[in-house]
Structure formats: structure tokens, C-alpha cells
Amino acid sequence: MERGAISSALIGHYFGAFIIEAYEYPEIKAYIERIRKNYQQPEAFEDFKRVAKAVEADPRFAKLAEFAKTACAEQTNQQGGSSSP
Question: Which of 3, 7, 17, 42 could, after both became Cys, cross-link 68 (CB 3.0–4.6 A)?
Fold first, then answer.
């Protein structure tokens, strides 16, 4: 896939909340750490992290970011865990 084929604004608008929510889940963070460690790939998923942080920091998507974090925290709390790793 060609980089830059979709604008960052479009990614943030349509997928931003999903990206942030996925990035915030402790299970996904643990999975990424296992991949990095077990397969000696310290850069694995760096683009995922970069996109999540960029969307989160963009003021245009502040409400989406807050919604995603809230949804993630609520889901994690319902499962009996905490929202931080």
C-alpha cells in the first residue's frame, strides 16, 4: 500500500477513535511488548503507536480521543482490570 494514499485528517476522522481505543487496551500493549521481545523486533508496531499518538494529540480529534479513552477505561473496568498497564 502506498504511504500517503489516505490523508491524516481522513484517518483521524474515520478511524481515530478506534485506533486510540485499540492502542490503549492493556492486552494489546502486552501483545506488542511480547512480539517485540520474543521476536527481537523492538520497532514492531511503531507506526501503530505513532498514528495513535498523532491522532490523540490533534486538537481536531480531541473529542474522539476522549471518547476512545473513556470507552477503553469502562470496558477494562467491567473486566475487572485497570486501564493502565
Answer: 17
Selection from 13, 3, 11, 4 nearest residue 61 by Cα:
13
SS3 29: helix
Instruction: Indicate the pTM of the whole model.
Output: 0.73
The amino acid occupying position 34 is R
What is the Cα–Cα distance from 48 to 23, expressed in whole angstroms?
8
Per-residue pLDDT of the chain (85 residues; tens, 9 = 90+): 577 888 989 999 899 989 998 998 889 989 999 999 999 999 999 999 999 999 999 999 988 888 887 877 776 677 765 444 4
